[in-house]
Amino acid sequence: MGKVYIGVDVGGMSIKAGVVNINGEILFKKSCVTDGQNVDQFLKDTKTLLEEVVNEAKEKDLDPQGIGFGIPGMVDNNLGIINKMANIGGRDVPLKYYLKDLNLPIYLSNDANVAALAEQKFGVAKGMKHVILLTLGTGVGGGVIVNNQLYEGNQGKGAELGHTCLILNGRQCGCGRKGCLETYASASALLRLTREYMEKYKDSMMWEYCNNDINNVSGLTSFECAKKGDEAANKLIDEYIMYLGEGLLDFANIFRPEAFVIGGGISNQGEYLTNKLEEYLRKQNYGYEGAPESKVLIAKLKNDAGIIGAASLLME
Fold first, then answer.
1. For residues 134 and 187, what is the distance between their CA atoms, to the nearest angstrom?
2. What is the residue-level pLDDT of the chain in tens, covering all 316 positions?
3. Could you tell me the pTM of the whole model?
4. What is the C-alpha separation between 48 and 50, in angstroms, rounded?
């Protein structure tokens, strides 16, 4: 029987589970819709889905070695408890205990952590020993790989890079503090900044792009108009790159990674984004004299990163 690993990518509305081999290839996957606000239903749906996946794996003469979870929130990886999960009701959900009848090792980690692990083991940063991943979405998620090992901190609650302070007494963050990186560099922050610039520059091309309705602003608005030469959009992008770039500079000085991997919707800008970031970093004495520069790369595994990374927790 071939050894395989089960990775589970948990979302607010759905659960995806896949069987992954030692090479990081997804052999098959299944998913189900769940009611994220009903903890009991979430647990039942998760267990039913995993029973199906385990049974199918065994029918295919595969030998599951364990189950890893990528959770969008805070977990206790020692106890296998979900302390708090984005878009999911309840606190301190005993996921590992609930799944004990599956008779498989179970490991929980934050979703950004597992994405970092996936990209370092099988994605764009494969072969690198020191990697930082940032997911730019509703918030800013962070994952840290140090010397080929996933760094999670005590109880798995470390590496919250999006909640490092960028501006003292700055914008209010959902975590309770002010001035966190995610309030300036997330996709949500980009939308807010876009609306502010549109209100300030009434002649900006961004209005036409949004059909003169500020409610139509998307993550593409500023970038696409900047590419077409709109002055206000270019100023906006420069400001956004400054915020994100300053965050990367802090992490470079702490961890000195070989690469920063950028994920989330904004990463779809590809080299347009990475070129601007690298240019900003170099202008700020990034790397310093005698220190190695870090590459800025775009995440490669996209929607499969959660499953592959969660499965990779069992390979560690």
1. 12
2. 699 999 999 987 899 999 999 999 999 999 999 877 788 999 999 999 999 999 999 999 999 999 999 999 899 999 999 998 876 677 899 999 999 999 999 999 999 999 999 999 999 999 999 999 999 999 999 999 999 999 999 999 999 999 999 999 999 999 999 999 999 999 999 999 999 999 999 999 999 999 999 999 999 999 999 999 999 999 999 999 999 999 999 999 999 999 999 999 999 999 999 999 999 999 988 777 778 999 999 999 999 999 999 999 999 7
3. 0.94
4. 6
Which amino acid belongs to residue 112? A
Say how many residues make up the chain: 316
**Tokens encoding 223:** 């970038």
